[in-house]
Amino acid sequence: MAVNYTTQDGVAVITLNNPPVNGLGLSTRAGIVEGIERAQNDPDVKAIVLTGAGKAFSGGADITEFNTPKATQEPTLATVIKIVEGSAKPVVAAIHSVAMGGGLELALGAHYRIAAPGAQIALPEVKLGILPGAGGTQRLPRAIGLEAALNMIVSGAPVLSEKLADSGLFDEVVQGDLLEAALAFARKVGAKQGPHPKVRDRKIEHPNAAGFIQFARNSVAAIAKNFPAPHKCIDAVEAGVQNGFDKGLAFERECFIALVQTPESRALRHAFFGERAASKIPDVPADTPLRDISRVAVIGAGTMGGGIAMNFINAGIAVTLLETKQEALDRGLATIRKNYEASVKKGKLKPEALEERMALITPTLSYDHLRSADLIVEAVFEELGVKEQVFKRLDEVAKPGAILASNTSTLDVDKIAAFTKRPQDVVGLHFFSPANVMKLLEVVRGKETAKDVLATVMQLAKKIRKTAVVSGVCDGFIGNRMIEQYVRQALFMLEEGALPAQVDKAIEKFGFAMGPFRMSDLAGNDIGWAIRKRRYQERPDIHYSKIADRLCEMGRFGQKTGGGWYDYKTGDRTAYPSQVVDEMIGAFSKEINGERRKISDEEIVERLVFALVNEGAKILEEGIASKASDIDMVYLTGYGFPLYRGGPMLYADTVGLYNVERAIRRYAARPNGDAWQLAPGLAKLVAEGHGFNG
Ligand code: T1G
């Protein structure tokens, strides 16, 4: 039963019991109404306590019900709250751990609120692309004032209950047994004559409400460029201030219904569930026993190794940092310290925390010091021979059961595992540079990688605040394999008539953080050059544009050489279109007898994004990724894909796979069309009338 009902000394206790977070799904909503009505009809009951079992008072509306009939089936949350508020007997909400979204709105409908300290109080709807849809925009300003309420509603950020102790939201914040305190409070108010206080009857006091609301609009305009919800949050609060509670409530409802249908909200909800779904591996049971990871070792103190080490140190996990030469080790440590000093300067890290973190590093030049490590991550030079030496050495020194991880971004993890006598303990942990900043972690599962190794690293990823996505073994895993097709299209379009700045601008207007040419200049054009040279050997059948090789032969590796696809000025990262490069591109087209033509921004976006989608479909078919949302999480957290579009696979669903297939077939019939081998899986979904995400 989603709600339990008991009585204690004249107090009815209604307990939400819908694990994991007491989501206010239909059965829970109906259970609350049943409990309230039962209490009204019981003459022995003088008051009611509303509380939550388990890890939350309530995490809000059940977002798995959104856009399904249950979401709007009576009793809706608005109806439930009206019934709670209309109860003749006082309702006391007893709040612990989490009161979020609809959970907080429910508590605001009660007559009194008692909280335990440490509870997360929030109206996070805006983070899902919607707004509080059960009176939150009307009651919270009346409970804690216009400014505090608007800040909470527009940011969606949680505030700890004790910080709201004097805000007017709670009647008491109590240490000790919350239920006992709530029962005592209920008995006290139950003895009083009604009517009992309703938040909706309070006034919204503010000396200059219109001025503050305008200030809120200005501040939101900057951060909410592609998201309609923050603006609607302000509109709904303003409606209540100007026209009173009931009109404000009706307007809030209108805004909610409009927002919940938007593609932005669908994208944000997709990302919310995608983040959580990524940690679930279909064939690895959720209760797989984990290996204990107390001590980590990192081999290589370069850019990647240092960044990787910081992730563990930041989570309070001690790290042994191994290098081959003292000066490399010293350089690595100095870089880590410099990164922390920068955080201290920005006020993101307390000065004393800097030394605490540095003290967690044990630098060494000896493999012998890795013997006690539970997890060893190598971040050495990206060359199979070097990896072979490292893993053979690790096989000798690492203790039984230690997890041996490679940070390789392009090499075959199965080959690396085969350098050891314990392939079941080998896994890929592909961090993205800068490793201490980028959220994405590709966990590369070798064919022998043990299930408990996977379960352990997925749990550890959460601890070091990474979004971990499992990839099978293939060239480029998920992210880089797809980006290779994206770059191929970008290069072909230069041959056919576009210029770097036009391509970058078009895809940045679509929402990417950075276009392919600015990205390549930042990462270094020589990196792509090395990969293509390998490709020409391994896969001579694949047709690549050679235009980027021409750029590299000019020594234009990007920012690091003062020029790449763009020109750069010393100390200035601004990318200036380069006449030299544009002329080279024009000459290149002539050399290959390519007729340069005008390419529309729409074609640029379609070819870049659908190249990702088509390769993503192949990755799904091959089982390299187990679900489309995993691919989306890779692109949202590692490749600057715009969050409000939900990732390439969700975007394809939004466009309609039928239209994606038609576009791919169109490009396949044109110059450079051999790059467009339509993924059979995509065509199959179109034939079945399905999308990638159902
Ligand atoms: N509905 C359904 N499932 C939810 C859920 C929700 N609101 N919140 C969490 N879950 C699932 C989650 O998918 C995961 O599932 C499990 O619970 C544990 O979550 C009318 C319309 C509450 C702070 O936005 O912020 O109310 O993977 O891993 O770290 O105005 O979950 O185990 O199968 O995150 O302890 C507004 C979103 C809804 C809160 C707990 N509420 N949730 O964090 O656990 S809209 C939210 C969270 C609304 C009203 C509107 C967090 C948490 P699984 P978890 P956690």
Automatic annotation (TrEMBL):
SUPFAM superfamilies the record matches: 6-phosphogluconate dehydrogenase C-terminal domain-like, ClpP/crotonase, NAD(P)-binding Rossmann-fold domains
Reactions the enzyme catalyzes: a (3S)-3-hydroxyacyl-CoA + NAD(+) = a 3-oxoacyl-CoA + NADH + H(+)
One MF term in the entry's GO annotations: (3S)-3-hydroxyacyl-CoA dehydrogenase (NAD+) activity
Highest taxon of source: Bacteria
InterPro entries: 3-OHacyl-CoA_DH_NAD-bd, 3HC_DH_C, 6-PGluconate_DH-like_C_sf, ClpP/crotonase-like_dom_sf, Enoyl-CoA_hydra/iso, NAD(P)-bd_dom_sf
Any one of the GO BP annotations: fatty acid beta-oxidation
The keyword Lipid metabolism is annotated on this UniProt entry: yes
Domain (3-hydroxyacyl-CoA dehydrogenase NAD binding) ranges: 296-471
Keywords: Fatty acid metabolism, Isomerase, Lipid degradation, Lipid metabolism, Lyase, Multifunctional enzyme, NAD, Oxidoreductase, Peroxisome
Pathway: Lipid metabolism; fatty acid beta-oxidation
Compartments reported by the entry: Peroxisome
CDD domains xref list: crotonase-like
Domain 3-hydroxyacyl-CoA dehydrogenase C-terminal: 476-568, 604-690
The keyword Lyase belongs to this UniProt entry's keyword annotation: yes
PANTHER family, per database record: 3-HYDROXYACYL-COA DEHYDROGENASE-RELATED (PTHR23309:SF51), 3-HYDROXYACYL-COA DEHYROGENASE (PTHR23309)
Protein name, as recorded: 3-hydroxyacyl-CoA dehydrogenase
Species per Swiss-Prot/TrEMBL record: Paraburkholderia panacisoli
Lineage, top ranks: Bacteria, Pseudomonadati, Pseudomonadota, Betaproteobacteria, Burkholderiales
